Automatic annotation (TrEMBL):
Keywords attached to this entry: DNA-binding, Transcription, Transcription regulation
Highest taxon above the source species: Bacteria
UniProt source species: Mycobacterium gordonae
Protein name listed in UniProt: AsnC family transcriptional regulator
InterPro entries found in the cross-reference section: AsnC-type_HTH_dom, Dimeric_a/b-barrel, Tscrpt_reg_AsnC-like, Tscrpt_reg_AsnC/Lrp_C, Tscrpt_reg_HTH_AsnC-type_CS, WH-like_DNA-bd_sf, WH_DNA-bd_sf
GO annotation, biological process: response to amino acid
Molecular function in Gene Ontology: sequence-specific DNA binding
Cross-referenced SMART domains: HTH_ASNC (SM00344)
A family per Pfam: AsnC_trans_reg
Residue intervals of the HTH asnC-type domain: 4-65
Gene Ontology cellular component list: cytosol
Length: 148
């Protein structure tokens, strides 16, 4: 796909904030017709810019009230794919990324409470060749957005 233009970006912002809006409603916000919005959205879907549509669930409403970021330090070098394989089946790990700096990876972990978090951390630490980990428990989320 060619580079996104300003109109594509405005449509993406509207979709990120109001995913259930109709093409007509989005068109009103960005000053385009509904068919023009649909064509652009279809093009972004076909090219992979938009990977899908999903419901954003409040983890607190499900009773998962404990949140942490976990820095992982590995023994030696481990391929990112090996780390992904080690953590992909741990449901408490909601995202994981390799990073620069002293740690090898950072994980975003959700749990019901501190005991649940501790159990999840034990599974994370035993799942790969991990030297140690450092956990940072979230007290409050200040900004939580899904758009660029």
């Amino acid at each position: 796909m060619d580079r996104l233009d300003e109109m594509d970006e405005r449509i993406l912002v509207e979709l990120a904030e109001h995913a259930r809006a109709t093409f007509a409603e989005i068109g009103q916000k960005v000053n385009l017709s509904a068919p023009a919005v649909k064509r652009r959205v279809d093009r972004m879907l076909d090219s992979g810019v938009i990977r899908g549509f999903t419901a954003v669930v409040d983890h607190n409403a499900l009773g998962w009230n404990t949140e942490a970021y976990v820095q992982v330090f590995c023994h030696g070098r481990i391929a990112p794919e090996k780390l992904r394989e080690a953590w992909v089946d741990i449901p408490e790990v909601v995202s994981a990324a390799t990073v620069t700096g002293t740690s090898d990876a950072i994980l975003h972990v959700l749990a019901r409470d501190m005991r649940h978090l501790e159990a999840a951390l034990e599974r994370i630490r035993s799942s790969a060749d991990i030297e140690r980990s450092e956990s940072i428990v979230v007290l409050s989320n200040l900004i939580d957005r899904m758009r660029p």
